[in-house]
Amino acid sequence: MTPRPPAASQPALGDRASVFILLAAACGFLMLPVGDTFGKIMGEAGVAPTQIAWGRWAAQTVILTPVVFWLYGARPVLRPTRLDLQLLRALLIGLATICYFTAIRDVPLADAAGVLFIAPLLVTALSALLLKEHVGIRRWSAVVVGFLGMLLIVKPGTGAFQPGALWALGAAFLFAGFMVLTRRMAGLNKPLITLWWAGAVSTVGMGALIVPIWTPIGWAEIAMMCAMGAIMALGHLLIIWAADRVEASAMAPLPYLEMVMATVMGYVVFGDFPTAVTWAGCGIVIAAGLFVVFRERRAAPLPDH
Q: How far apart are CA 230 and CA 266, in angstroms?
């Protein structure tokens, strides 16, 4: 779920190099739920989700700023192409982060991650409706099947339903809009510059929101926010580095490793383990998402930024 360059720009690599690069990307995806775990710990301790989200983006921005300016210089970073889309994209991902941290405060990590993975299917639907891309009956069918799988995770109308799941669904819709804008902005800026803008805008925007709700936090929470930002920054750097070097189709299954790590962290840290129905729903969502990804690659390979 990280910006990727056009496949045509990626050089041919030997098998060993490709495996090493894909392992680096896998490590990046596995790191992201570890960062979410710190967010859930703080949320359950009473820290406001907006405050947690701000800390996550602020720490990542502090870490990425010297890297981005050293690599590209001030002018390309501060004067990106289509600043308006950069700002809107950052707004969407910032709001999605708030929704997601609100969700995982109340629901298991694996359940929230399963709902969030409906986002690629929403991208397919939004691309057809907003970008006028052709989406055939097979991909539309996969979108419908994926939504049915999501209902198994959310369980509306049953005693097992948790309102926090609706926050995860809201995060999925916002993240889908973020991904549509990312696709539209393909090739306009370096992915790392775009990632920096998402963090910088979220940090400034949320900074204004948290002033009236700020809760004093201790050194433990400050350390967790810093760790969360460092883990997220390193994870995204690994993913972007790998995406520059291998085909997008090879990367396609790797984001679902987040579901594996979310399950592990949820069980080890919080004692949560998905029910059989949740596993079934997650399996359906993942299968539908993979079908859509590979169908898009086969039908018309597009820059996946």
A: 20
